[in-house]
Design brief:
Blueprint: H1 2-18, E1 47-56, E2 61-70, E3 76-86, E4 89-99, E5 104-115, H2 116-120, E6 125-131
Antiparallel strand pairs: 1-2, 2-5, 3-4, 3-6
């Protein structure tokens, strides 16, 4: 008998628990697409700086050795640019570089006004290398 009473009240007892099941969350509409879609990849540059190294030139000056990679199968000519800020003073060097198709080429840019030891002991340092 007690089972019948329990079974009879069970739907009413569970109706409060089941009525508040979680519903969908989040925005009702998808977000708008940005004006310049980051998913669209811009055309890759054919020449890129793939590696760099700091070294001591024969004159004890700072030298930057850049490795430029050609991503195409055609020989390309570009201008490598290195910008260097050392303790608040900015220096820039450029060099023309020719790279064969699907290959690498190294070029060295020497900063005669910066001694290699001064570069090693600098308090602040910023570096940027690019090829156009």
């Amino acid at each position: 008998m007690k089972r019948r009473v329990l079974l009879g009240t069970l739907p009413f007892a569970l109706s409060g628990c089941l009525s508040s099941l979680p519903g969908p969350t989040g925005p009702r509409n998808p977000p708008t697409e940005p004006a310049n879609d980051p998913r669209e990849q811009a055309q890759q540059k054919p020449l890129v700086v793939s590696d760099f190294e700091f070294s001591r030139a024969d004159s004890d000056a700072l030298a930057v050795v850049l490795t430029v990679t050609n991503r195409t199968d055609v020989e390309r000519v570009g201008t490598a640019t290195v910008t260097l800020s050392l303790d608040g003073e900015t220096f820039e060097r450029t060099a023309e570089v020719t790279v064969g198709g699907d290959s690498d080429a190294e070029t060295e840019l020497v900063f005669e006004e910066i001694q290699f030891e001064a570069f090693q002991n600098a308090d602040s340092f910023e570096f940027d290398a690019s090829v156009e």
